[in-house]
C-alpha cells in the first residue's frame, strides 16, 4: 500500500551543523574564518592611508596622528564593540543587525524595527561600493609598472565574472579563501615589519595622544576621520559572519588579523616618515613598500584578496536579504541553493542588482580614490544603529543603566564623529551611497507598512461557527468534488480563528468540496534554524491544522515540508490519504492534493487615506516585482489554485442611500 504522497524526500538533520558553529576554536575553523570574515577589513590598508594624504603634504604630526587614530579605531570599534560586546549578543550563534533585532523582538517596542532596517539598508548600500573600491585599489597597483594603464575594463571584467559565477555556487573557490587570506595577511605583516624596523619612532603611534593632538590642533585634522574610518568598514561584516564560523574561531583569528593590520599600518607610517614634506601624488604607501621584484606577485595576491572580500560581501548581502524575508522586511524574492554547502544561497534579483550597482559605481567614479568619497558614509549609519540595538540588548539582559549609558556615550561620540567627518564627503560622492541607502530603506518601509495595512483590513471569524457547515459540505455529493485534499495557507495566529477570506473561498465564491481540509500556518521564530511543527486535528477525517515553526534562516519550502508532515500523519494513522473514489481506493492510489493561495486585493482605494493609498500602491508594485507566493513556498503549478479575494472594505457612512 502506498502510504505517502509522491515525491516525498528524506528529512535532513542540520542540528549537528549548527552545534558545530558553537564549538570551540580549531585550526580549520580559524583558517575558514580568515577567508570568510576578514576580506573587507583586511584589504583596507590598500586605500585607507593613501586617502588621508590625498592632496595633503606629509608631516610628522599627521603621520603619527593617522596611524594612532587607525590603531585606536580598530581597538574601540572592532575589538571592543564588535568582538567583545556585539558577538555576545548572538541569536543562537547567529550575528548581524537583523539577527540582533530578531533577538530583541520580545521587547515589543513599537519602533524597534526602524534602527534595524536603517542599518540593513545602509549595509546593503555598502555592498555596492566595497567590491569596486577594493578591486580597483588592487588593479591600480599595476600602474607602478605601466603608468598609463586603463584599469576600468579590467575591474569591470573581474566584477562581472564574479557576479556571473554566483549562480553556480562558490563551494570550490571557497576552499581557497582561507589559505589565500593567510598568505595575504602574512605578506602585509612582513611588509610592515620591514619598514617599521627602519624607523622605530613610529611606535609612538600607540599613544592615543597623537590621534587627539591631530584632531584638535592640525587645521582640517578632524575631517581626516572620513578617510581613517575606512580602516574599520569590515567590522559590521565580522559580526554578521559570526554564524558561519563561530565566535571562538573569530576570537582567535581576529587576534592574528589585527596584529597583521597594525604592523602594516605602522610600516606605512614609517615609510611616510621617510617621505615628508610633499604630497604623495600617485604614490600609494602600500604598494610603495613592496620591492620591485615582488610587485607583480603582490598585486596578484592583493587582487585575489579583494575578490575574496567582494565575494564575502556578496554572500553576506544574500544572507541579509534572506533574514529580511523571514522577518517580512523585504518583498518576496526567489532564493536558490546552488550547492549542498550549509548556509550558501543565491538570490538572483539581488545578485544582478548588486552587479548593476557595482558597474555603475566603477563607470561613474573610475578611480578608487574617487570612490573613497562614496565609501564609509553609509556604513556609519549601520554602526550607529547597531549601537542603539546593543543598548536594548543590554537592557534585555538587565545590565545597569550606568553601563548602558556609558556605551551610548562612548560610541555615539566616536561613531558620531566619524559620521560628521564622512558627511563632508556627501557632495563629492557620498550622495551615491546615501541615495542607495534611502532607496533600499524606502523599499523596506513600503513593504512593512503595506503588509500592516493589509493585515489591518483582514477580518477573522470564529472557526467553530463554520465547522458544522464544513462537515456537511465534505459529504454533500451534490457539489462537485474540488479535490481529495484541499490546503489553505492561513495567517491566523489563533487556531480558533480563521480569515473571512478562506470561508468565502470555501463556501461562497465557488463551493469547494474536499474529503480533507488542511490549514497551514507558518511561525517565523527568533532562532535561526528552528524546524518543528505542531498538528491539531480539529475535525477527525475532515479538518487538520498544521503549524510550522521555522527559523528566520530556514527556507520556507512548504510543499516539501507539508509532504513530510503528511507522511508522519499517515504513519501514525491520523490521516488517510488514499483516494476516496472507489475504483482508485481499491488499488490504494493516493488522492490528489490541491493548494489554494488567496490573493487579497484592496478594492475601492479611494476609501483609504492618501498615505494608505500611497503605501498600498508601492507595496503592490513591490509584490508584482517580487516572487509570487507560489515561488516563495515552492508550490507546484499542477496542484495550485490562485484566487482573488477582496479584503474587508471600510464602512463609508457618507454613501448610505435612502430609498425613494
Summarize the model shown.
The chain is of the alpha/beta class. It has helices at residues 15-21, 27-37, 39-42, 48-52, 60-85, 97-104, 113-139, 152-164, 171-196, 209-217, 225-228, 235-240, 242-245, 247-273, 285-288, 295-326, 348-365, 368-371, 377-396, 401-423, 430-457, 467-475, 500-509, 558-571, 582-585, 610-625, 629-632; strands at 460-462, 481-489, 497-499, 513-525, 531-539, 543-551, 593-601, 640-646.
Question: Can you walk through the features of this model?
Answer:
This protein is an alpha/beta fold and 660 residues long. The chain is 55% helix and 9% strand. The protein has a six-stranded mixed β-sheet. Strands 1-3 form a two-stranded antiparallel sheet. Strand 5 and strand 6 (543-551) form a beta hairpin. It is elongated and about 95 Å long. Residues 1-22 have low confidence and may be disordered.
Would you spell out the secondary-structure blueprint of this structure?
Blueprint: H1 15-21, H2 27-37, H3 39-42, H4 48-52, H5 60-85, H6 97-104, H7 113-139, H8 152-164, H9 171-196, H10 209-217, H11 225-228, H12 235-240, H13 242-245, H14 247-273, H15 285-288, H16 295-326, H17 348-365, H18 368-371, H19 377-396, H20 401-423, H21 430-457, E1 460-462, H22 467-475, E2 481-489, E3 497-499, H23 500-509, E4 513-525, E5 531-539, E6 543-551, H24 558-571, H25 582-585, E7 593-601, H26 610-625, H27 629-632, E8 640-646
Parallel strand pairs: 2-4, 2-7, 4-6, 7-8
Antiparallel strand pairs: 1-3, 5-6
Helix pairs in contact: 2-9, 2-14, 5-10, 5-14, 6-7, 6-19, 7-8, 7-16, 7-17, 7-19, 7-21, 8-16, 8-17, 9-14, 9-16, 19-20, 21-26
